[in-house]
Design brief:
- By secondary structure, this protein is of the alpha+beta class.
- It has helices at about 15-25, 35-45, 95-110, 125-135; strands at about 5, 50-55, 60-70, 75-85, 115-120.
- A five-stranded mixed β-sheet has the order 1-2-3-4-5, with helices on both faces.
- Helix 1 (about 15-25) crosses helix 2.
- The protein is globular, with a radius of gyration of 17 Å.
């Protein structure tokens, strides 16, 4: 049975989540940095930049989700964005991701959020299948744009 619990920096499972978060980073090509990962996650959750939840089975962390809550200005409400969702390889396809998603959806609905959104790679068919089965729909008519900031360079719009 999977239990999903809100995560705070003082929660007994925090260190397990931080270790799994480091695995998640490595899965996406980042160099493992357990201490830096734990510090970063601690700061993000403590400062409420991210909320997090852990999936537990028999007391062990088997997955996590992080969420940002943002203003939805046009509807004068909030929108929840699932930022990170990761399930340990040994627990994939066992309902853990679905339990984490349902936890977020339930809490967003209770909080009166206007929507919950997420993003994933276009080739991640298992994730896309799960998300659409739950009711997430592709967004059309929008483009995701990104500007990677290099702190050693001047602001590109600063022409002075």
């Amino acid at each position: 049975m999977t239990t999903v619990v809100p995560l705070t920096p003082t929660h007994p499972a925090f260190d397990q989540v931080a270790a799994l978060f480091d695995d998640y980073r490595a899965h996406h090509g980042q160099e493992s940095a357990p201490d830096s990962t734990r510090s970063w996650l601690h700061e993000q959750v403590a400062q409420r930049r991210l909320t997090a939840a852990a999936a537990l089975r028999a007391g062990d962390v088997c997955g996590f989700v992080t969420v940002t809550i943002m203003p939805a200005s046009l509807v004068l409400g909030t929108a929840w964005s699932i930022h990170d969702l990761y399930v340990a390889p040994d627990h994939r396809r066992t309902g853990v991701a679905g339990a984490l998603l349902q936890h977020v959806i339930r809490h967003a609905r209770t909080a009166g959020a206007h929507r919950v959104s997420l993003r994933t790679e276009t080739g991640n068919i298992p994730a896309l299948t799960l998300y659409t089965e739950i009711g997430f729909q592709p967004v059309t008519g929008l483009e995701l744009l990104s500007l990677t900031l290099d702190t050693t360079r001047r602001d590109p719009v600063d022409r002075g």
